[in-house]
Please model this.
Amino acid sequence: MSKENLGNLIRSGIIAIASVVAIQSTLTGCNLTSTSALPNNSTSSSKNIQKDQLPSFVITPQYDDALPFSQGLAAVKIGEKYGYIDKAGKTVIEPQFEEANIFADGLALVKISDGYGYIDTTGNMAIKVEFPDAQNFSEGLAAVGRPAGIQNDWGYIDKRGNVVIKLELSYASTFSEGLAPAAYWAKGDFENEGALLAGYGYIDKTGKIVIEQKFDSAGNFSQGFAAVQIDNKYGYIDKLGKIVIQPQFSVAGEFSEGLAAVRIKDKYGYIDSKGNVVIKPQFDNAGKFSQGVAAVKIDGNYGYIDKTGNIVIQPQFDDANQFSYGLAAVKYQGKWGYIKK
Model:
């Protein structure tokens, strides 16, 4: 995955299970003999859904893209521009942005022309458009990038737009639980990207490396764990950098509500914090749990399961995001709308 594509995933605010940054390692092995499974109807496709099982939308599918609600607002795309709606579906910030993201710490990252800035919940520009690359705020800081040589230099700004960690990182991601995946440039030939990166580690809010740059990729901490990649396999570390779930997965996601989605061979399932498989691998894709449910892909369609692996919303959507504020953005027959649980 290119760094440009990786940056787009990070900015979206949506946890993509296949994202490289959401994958890492630890010391306790997974119990792959778990017998947890979905019920017999777990492979039902949308073709078999009865009329009374069709989705009940609270905001009718009408958008070309839609993000989860955050701080009461959701970014939606109408035609070529993004704006924001409230939970009633009313437009509160007119579509005007090339890109728009979730609100975090009261600000949302938006793109106008070729640059990124941040707006507040009224749509006013809080930090002017001046960055060629940027990420969402988290814990009071946001990673921003600028061109340097053949790559970007990254650093962090505060909510006033002041640089608080100098732009001298080769990679930077959002802070969570006080730490952020990051990498400083290694000494090397700028024509050879492989020689520039010494590996991915974690920094604190002073910019100091507190977990050594030794991973092939590194995800955000959540519930005390972070996914990391070692030799093409993913496991989990704790906040001391100790491997707590051995690298063994082809993909690994963030922990949420005690579970994390992982891919074993070509299917996704869920593990607990000890690395035990609690929902066996059987899905084509899987998201993180939020408000007790997670989006999963079965036979080409997305639905939702609960934490026992039971289907609670039948697979019938082209795409689906996590629930927030009681609503989830789903794509249905080519357009995005919102459903409730």
